[in-house]
Amino acid sequence: MTTFRILPVIENRRLGPYTLLRIKDVGIHKYAGCGQFVMVGLSFLRDPFLLRPLSFLSVDNDSFSLLIKIKGRGTEMLSMVKPGEYLKVLGPLGRTILPGEKGILIAGGIGIAPLFYQSQWMRGGVLLYGAKDKRELVLVKEMEDRGLVVKTITEEKGGTVCDLVMENIALLKGQRVFICGPVAMIKSLREIIRDYTRETFVYLERRMGCGIGGCKSCAIKTGYGYKFVCQDGPVFPLEEVEIG
After folding, report:
1. According to the model, what pLDDT value does residue 50 have?
2. C-alpha triplet 171, 173, 176: angle, nearest 5°
3. To 10 degrees, the CA torsion angle through 232, 199, 68, 148?
4. pLDDT by residue, tens only, the chain of 244 residues
5. Does residue 129 lie within any of the structural domains?
6. Is the bond preceding 17 in cis, omega lying within 30 degrees of 0?
7. CATH number of the domain to which 64 belongs
8. Angle CA(105)–CA(31)–CA(199) in degrees, nearest 5?
9. pTM strictly above 0.90
10. Which terminus of the chain faces fewer neighbouring Cβ atoms within 10 Å, N or C?
11. Which domain holds residue 37?
12. What is the pLDDT of residue 46?
């Protein structure tokens, strides 16, 4: 939906080092697809002016949830919005994907958010999940309850998600893989898994001014020319995109 809506926050709680916001939106489940996102901002302030792109964490019949990591002033202010206050929302935006009932999910840090949403469509598979410390490993039990085998690793214990993938590389043979995490992680994984997977897709995060292709700030270079994360993504075949 490409019209702005003013929607109420109905829950704000901590989830590890992150903030989980639940926003009331009756009927959202009818048009929010796997892979999509929303642009979110404060309804009562003009500064910061630009909305922030945030992946869906979950979608229910009458609400949706977002997971926020504080990266600057805008996300810090969003994390402090209280139940009963309102947010300006644009979306769902982006292209929907068909994830399949099973596959391999690879998450780094807050990259778990869109993959958790994707798992709503899955009936099994494997999640390889890395973070800086144990506090950042959120939603593990919930993923297991959805039928996924979850393997985790933390940097404080001396390993990265790339190490975890190499330890479990045999699981990727012939599988569809979906990745979401920091750019450095994605660049390393490209080389590690190149000869193993059947298909690999990546969720890309870019700064956006509008979310609908007008500002062109989220353009990325692909093997088929430049594309926009907001309109053509945010999920792309890994082999098609330049990461960096």
Report:
1. 74
2. 90
3. 140
4. 667 899 999 999 999 999 999 999 999 999 999 999 999 998 775 555 578 999 999 999 999 999 999 988 889 999 999 999 999 999 999 999 998 889 999 999 999 999 999 999 999 999 999 999 999 999 999 999 999 999 999 999 789 999 999 999 999 999 999 999 999 999 999 999 988 888 999 999 888 888 888 888 899 998 889 999 999 999 999 999 988 6
5. no
6. no
7. 2.40.30.10
8. 25
9. yes
10. C
11. 5-93
12. 57
Centroid of chain to Cα 56: 7
3 state SS for the chain: CCCCEEEEEEEEEEECCEEEEEEECCCHHHCCCCCCEEEEEECCCCCCCCCEEEEEEEECCCEEEEEECCCCHHHHHHHCCCCCCEEEEEEEECCCCCCCCCCEEEEEHHHHHHHHHHHHHCCCEEEEEEECCHHHCCCHHHHHHCCEEEEEEEHHHCCCHHHHHHHCHHHHCCCEEEEECCHHHHHHHHHHHCCCCCEEEEECCCCCCCCCCCCCCCEEEEECEEEEHHHHCCEEEHHHECCC
The total domain count for the chain is 1
Handedness of CA 100, 101, 102, 105 (dihedral sign): positive
**The amino acid at 119:** S
Within a domain: residue 41? yes
Cβ neighbourhood burial of 228 (10 Å; 0-12, 13-18, 19+) = buried
Q: How many CB atoms lie within 10 A of CB 82?
A: 7
For residue 146, being part of any structural domain is answered with: no
